[in-house]
Amino acid sequence: MDLRSNKKSNRIMRFVLPLFIIMIFVFSCKDSVTTNTVSENNNNLVQDSIIGETDIQASFAFNKENKIEQLQLIVELDERSGNFEKVENIESILLNFGLLEDTIINQVLSTKDSAVHFKENKLIINLKFQFPILDSLDIIELTTVALCKKADSNENTIVQSEAYYYKNTAKKLEIENTYLHYAAFQNKDVVFKVLSLEKGFVKELLVTARVNQNIDKIEKIDLVINDVELEFYDSILASFQKQVRKSNKCELLSFIKRSKKYVELKVNIRGIKIREVERLKVAFNEVGKSNDKEIVDESKIRKVYYFDNGEIEAIIYQKDSLLDDGNICSELHLDYHRNGQLKEWGCQGSYHGSGAMVGTWFKYDTTGLLLEKTYYHLAEFKDAYMEVTEFYPNGKTKAIKRYKNAGQYEIDQDSIGEWQFFE
């Protein structure tokens, strides 16, 4: 266990160990254990949080000196750890917890450790400290590391999950509404932070978007803020020479690729003089809507369908990219409502030579509100399923339902498993 003092100015390390350290850990079996197992039903444990209100449910037990001597963490694993990932694929846990302004404990746990076990999709960690030093904690961050086979070969690849957070850890680490904050993107693909104000008006804005396309190919950015349309041309590639960074008295200050799924825009919008950002939309390489049906990046488009009024109804892009669950997205399908709002999008791929929906599909209403997302788990007949997550208008989860994967095997869409409903 690596114990270190950590001040806010130095900030907690970004919780991602160098790859070579992970490799050493994954491919070596460590017999030494720095913690002892605690019974899951230990009556001394006091539950501090519950799943749903936080990613990590925590329970504590204190010694006579009011120091934490036992800590139990329960995490309900989700797509952050990879939809294809079985619990036996998880090799290690990266765990960071403590007091941000005082002491942070960084620990790597093997899933072979007696302190770690799984109950279906729940990860349960029971720790007992031989020398308790913490009387409270305000941050917990947990990341899983798995060893999985690539979909197109027998080679192994290391998959590190996005982070799971305890309570307001993300806020304390000042990563709310950034690409590091998974919960911010649970029901939407775009989030923003106001970085600065000038005389009561928003000056600088940080916009983070989750994209389902090759970020390296993005050249056009359409940003709509409170119905004010901004159009920029930029790329993450240094060779791009057609930058247009000013639009409607606003300026694109930076365009950064944060990961293979997230891009970040920093924009100066003081020219439009708004006191509050009420509505914001962003699109990349968006299909043009001119009379001649000019289409950006036309070489990537296989088919375009139109409504009788000339507006675009659907577009099929060529993709051939690897999804997080190990499947290949050969085509990206986008369907639109008649009013131009995106209706549904997702990937088409194949399983054993047959066409199939792959990955996660998203469905929206005519105002752009997310209605549901459906994850398609491709497998042999008895193991194939589709999981549908429905949402309330306020963005909170309404229900999670599982069905047999009717699309893959052309069968009735029968329900399976236990459905979950939320108020």
Mean pLDDT: 78
- N-end to C-end Cα span: 41 Å
Strand content: over 45%
Instruction: Give Rg in angstroms.
Output: 24 Å
Strand order of the largest sheet: 20-21-22-23-24-25-26-27-28
The low-confidence runs, each spanning 5 or more residues with pLDDT under 50, are 1-42, 286-299
Distinct helical segment count:
3
How many separate domains? 3
What global shape is seen? globular
The major pleated sheet works out as: 9 strands, antiparallel
From the structure above, extract its key features.
mainly beta; 423 residues; 3 helices; Outer Surface Protein A, domain 3; 6-stranded antiparallel beta sheet; 9-stranded antiparallel beta sheet; Immunoglobulin-like; single chain; disordered N terminus; 3 domains
Quick summary:
By secondary structure, the chain is mainly β. Helices cover 4% and strands 47% of the residues.
Please explain how this structure is put together.
- The chain has 423 residues and is mainly beta.
- The protein has 3 domains: 2-168, no CATH class; 182-284, Sandwich (Immunoglobulin-like); 298-421, Outer Surface Protein A, domain 3 (Alpha-Beta Complex).
- Helices cover 4% and strands 47% of the residues.
- It contains 3 helices and 28 strands.
- The strands form 5 sheets. It has a 9-stranded antiparallel beta sheet with strand order 20-21-22-23-24-25-26-27-28.
- β16 (246-247) and β17 (250-257) form a beta hairpin.
- The two termini are 41 Å apart.
- 25% of the residues are buried.
- Mean pLDDT is 78; it is low at 1-42 and 286-299.
